[in-house]
Amino acid sequence: MATTTLPETEIHESKPGTKYVYFFGGGKADGNGKMKDDLGGKGAGLAEMTNAGLPVPPGFTIQTEACREHMRQGKTSAEVNRQMDEALKKLETLQGQPLGKGENPLLVSVRSGAKFSMPGMMDTILNLGLNDQTVEALAKRSGNPRFAYDSYRRLIQMFGNVVLEIPKPAFDEVFDAKKKQKKAKLDTDLDAKALQEVIEEYKKVVKKHTKADFPQDPHDQLTMARDAVFHSWLNDRAKHYRRINNISDDLGTAVNVQAMVYGNLGDTSGTGVGFTRNPATGDKEFYGEFLLNAQGEDVVSGVRTPVHISELHKIMPSVYDQLRDITTRLEKHYKDMQDFEFTIQDGKLYMLQTRNGKRTGLAAVRVAIQMVEEGLITKEEAIFRVEPNQLYDFLVPRLDEKKTKVEVLATGLPASPGAAVGQIVFTADEAVEKAGHGNQKNPVILVRAETTPEDIHGMEVAAGILTSRGGMTSHAAVVTRGMGKCCVAGAGDIRVDEKTREMQVKGQVFKAGDWISLDGTTGRVIKGKLGTLPPKADDPELLKLMSWSEPFRTMKVRANADIPRDAIQARAFGAEGIGLCRTEHMFFGEEKLPHMRAMILASTEKERRAALRKLLPLQRKDFDGVFRAMDGFPVTIRTLDPPLHEFLPRREDLLVEIAVLEATKPRSPKLKGLRSLLQRVEELHEFNPMLGHRGCRLGITYPEITEMQARAIFEAAVAVAKDGVKVHPEVMIPLVATLKETANQAAIIHRVAQEVFKEKGKKVDYMVGTMIELPRAALVADEIAKEAQFFSFGTNDLTQTTFGFSRDDVNKVLPTYLAEGILKQDPFAVLDREGVGQLIRMATERGRKTRPDLKVGICGEHGGEPSSVEFCYQIGLNYVSCSPFRVLTARLAAAQAAASEKLKVEGGRTK
Ligand code: ADP
Ligand code: MG
Ligand code: MG
Predict the structure, then answer these.
(1) Share of the chain above pLDDT 90, in %
(2) Cα-flanking dihedrals φ and ψ of residue 641, to 5°?
(3) pLDDT tens digits, residue range 574-590?
(4) How far is CA 719 from the centre of its chain?
(5) pLDDT at residue 2, as a whole number
(6) pLDDT higher than threshold 80 for residue 534
(7) CA distance 72 to 9
(8) Closest ligand 1 atom to the C-alpha of 111?
């Protein structure tokens, strides 16, 4: 276990006067729903529900400060122990039961609960207080020995795994063997005697792994469980989840100790989970699942496939009505869709948890709109009910079912929308191996009986997830919805055999590497590799929500687009111009590359100009299309940036080709050309191309390249303008570090502009500006602004050059940096406000000192990342530019940033 220890002098046992423990029960709670920082989401919800007079089993919450102290000191302080014992006494008195003692023992659950819900990340222990004596007392008092032994074996299993860190399979093996021996199909088929035998075996497992007996003292059980919850805050799964969800490691978790209620008392008992609205579609329907004669995790773990909540209406109508009534009240109270947990003990309903439910982007938009219509929230509040990243769900592809024959293998639950097509893998590690990190080289579908938090790294890289067990609230479903990833859950017709690595369905066998297609919107699992169709961004509800948020937005959103097709797409998503048009992408086309190579291989300026003349009309045509697509909006075109060797074949490939030719056709006329190509490739070779002959350095050493590009831009602009299209080219010089570089290139561009205007007899509005992507440029921004009419921060390169990280190699370092907490986030994904952000702020201020009307934007990956967009707004940038598919997200993020300032509300995004 990793604990951080502070230097000796800073150690303090506890802060005097701190209230560490908050009681709830008997209709009253010490805390309330607003205290999520201290009590965690779960504790705050339990307090709030208790205060509202709802049936909540009583208990107490040990607040997050105790966890932070525990992390600092490596142990729980005496004061926390004292307050906990006091609260425990109060609970024992209220219940009239002593913890784990006597004829009528009190049993409790020990539940973690941090400020932000982390599904399945930290483990709960149920039935704590049972031991060899109390299990008999429980059996006698309940008149239900099966229930008592079932509860005890669950305790040993959960305690053994969570507290004593014994791997789950050690217990599963025992349990499965017993089921086999007794020919039991379900867990519930094992009788009291069988469970007693399981308990004896479990105890042996504990002894074997820990060299000690299962702790019989209930108070020991309690303190050990509490401290294990504190430790679990630092386990890898929890850290990983926090990292991908941008939650601080410093918050800590609260611990809830709560009197047990029993859903496993027989067929008048049960447990379930639900949502007040459909979390996948947002439809207003009571949505949930439950199991009779079951406890805690059974519903969500997928061990048994749960039943739809509507069944409860048939089995226990009054409980169902009460549940509906309570959850409707909760939704009104919190003014948001609730995700709740309940247990029925002998026909009596208890509420165990409520929180704002996680939902898909589609559902988030729909629920927000419905709640405005229902008068629950205002339009302004509705804007904040959707995370900008969730809008991506409207852009997820659908399966193309016209072109291929569709064979539906099975239908599971539509757990998370969209479509995914990929090759089957059966483990998370395999998924990572095959798909690679981040860049989805080989799309894979992770196929599991059920997923667990240990699979999270595989789920992250998979294109989609398919499970054969579990419901809409299973781990797979909840996590994928959070990730915006396609998931089909609980496809019960599918058998997943993880040992033989096979998936069996409809008498067919599928192996790792076979292609399947998932439709997460309908739940269908389809054989083979279907195509996908682009989504529609003109959903009426999406447009409605955007129409509420847009009036707040002051910062413009542009798109990065190089070709007319992307520009058209970007306009459809609402882009207000192009912030980055990379001209080099235009050179990679089949018709252009040979001319580009000829230009690079030319040994004299004359030859080079000849090659460039061939490129000119091709480049002009591209600009023409982009200008037309952006009718009236500005288009920022960057002059050539990448090092020239990128346009030539790889040295290794050339060597091989030459060697093969020499061996087979030594007289081939091709050889001469290849050899001179190789020579040029070697001349252009650089040790560090990222810092090499690129950006404006190219244009300065080969001015005729800039000249040709400027000519293409202005000829296209004039031609388009003559057709009546409004056009605003902004020519952007990359990678400058000094004023003189800027002046050198700007002079060429201005000169060519004038030449073209004169030749064609028509002028267009244009600007010349620079990218700021080197720290030096940021430092001398006031100088550079003398020549530059606009700045665009190339935050990818600026992050690279500020940190001195090579973006292409940083993955050797980054995972460790993140795991060690040296960096909180990947700075290439989320703008580093402290360092890179400071440079941006400073350069903007300095630039505007020289030129008050300086237009400033950013055009790196960060332009579509909500927290980076927020930062850009806060420091007064004019626009952000991002890839077309991020435009909606950036628009909402920019609107939220402005609205939260104007309305003085917390955006709720900065965690
Ligand atoms: P998670 O955060 O993973 O949902 P919870 O603390 O909510 O973990 O608990 C896991 C399961 O145990 C839930 O289904 C919950 O309803 C059940 N549970 C927790 N405490 C009690 C209790 N005191 N009595 C009965 N069931 C409980
Ligand atoms: Mg829960
Ligand atoms: Mg750059």
Answers:
(1) 66
(2) -115, -45
(3) 999 999 999 887 777 67
(4) 45
(5) 40
(6) no
(7) 12
(8) 6
Average pLDDT over residues 591-596: 83
Closest-lying ligand 1 atom to the alpha carbon of residue 273:
14
- The number of C-alpha atoms within 13 Å of 691 and in the hemisphere containing its C-beta is 11
Q: How far is ligand 3, taken at its centre, from the CA of residue 695, in Å?
A: 8
Q: DSSP states of 663-683 as a string?
A: HH-TT-THHHHHHHHHHHHHH
Give residue 908's pLDDT.
43
Instruction: Give the phi and the psi of residue 215 in degrees, each rounded to 5.
Output: -60, 125
* 394 within 8 A of 362, measured Cβ to Cβ: yes
Tens digits of residue pLDDT in 100-123: 999 999 999 999 999 988 755 567
547 with 870: CB under 8 angstroms?
no
- Catalytic residue status for 475: yes
- Say if CB 771 and CB 736 are below 8 A apart: yes
- The one-letter amino acid code at 233 reads W
- pLDDT confidence band for 909 (50 / 70 / 90): very low
- The residue whose two tokens read 């302004």 is 380
What whole-number distance in Å separates Cα of residue 837 and Cα of residue 394?
30
Residue 859 is a catalytic residue:
yes
Ligand nearest, relative to CA of residue 117: 1
Across 169-216, the runs of DSSP E, i.e. the strands, are none
Residue 163 is predicted with a pLDDT of 93
Which of 67, 70, 231, 475 is labelled catalytic? 475
Residue that is written with structure tokens 């004019």 in the block: 878
Name the amino acid, one letter, at 305: T
Angle value at C-alpha 810, between 809 and 815, nearest 5 degrees: 130
Per annotation, catalytic residue among 486, 487, 859, 882: 859
Check whether 664 has a pLDDT greater than 60. Answer: yes
* Nearest alpha carbon to residue 615 among 698, 750, 705, 718: 705
DSSP element (H, E) containing 476: helix 475-483
Residue carrying structure tokens 């239900």: 144
504 forms bridges with which residues in the sheet? 495, 509
114-128, 518-532, 695-709: segment of lowest average pLDDT: 114-128
Give the residue, 237 or 420, on which the prediction is more confident.
420
Q: How far apart are the first and last CA of the chain?
A: 26
Residue 297 has pLDDT above 80, yes or no: no
Q: CB of 460 within 8 A of CB of 288?
A: no
**In whole angstroms, how far apart are CA 880 and each of 578, 791, 883?**
10, 12, 10
DSSP state of 407: -
Q: Which pLDDT belongs to residue 13? A: 61
What kind and span of H or E run contains 599? helix 593-601
Burial degree of 305 (CB within 10 A; 0-12, 13-18, 19+): middle
Angstrom distance (rounded) from CA 679 to CA 199: 76
CA distance 701 to 705: 9
pLDDT above 70 (res 439): no
Count of positions (residues) in the chain:
911
Cβ proximity of 273 and 470 under 8 Å:
no
Closest CA to 788 of 747, 751, 845, 841: 747
Which ligand lies nearest the alpha carbon of 124?
A: 1
pLDDT in tens, 443-487: 999 999 988 878 888 998 999 999 998 776 678 887 887 677 899
Instruction: For residues 205-228, give the mean pLDDT.
Output: 96
Rounded distance from Cα 119 to ligand 2 centre (Å): 8
- Torsion, Cα 626 629 632 638, to 10 degrees, reads -20
In sequence order, what are the beta bridge partners of 270? 292, 344
What is the CB < 6 Å shell around ligand 1? 57, 109, 111, 120, 124, 126, 258-261, 271, 296-297, 341, 343, 352-353
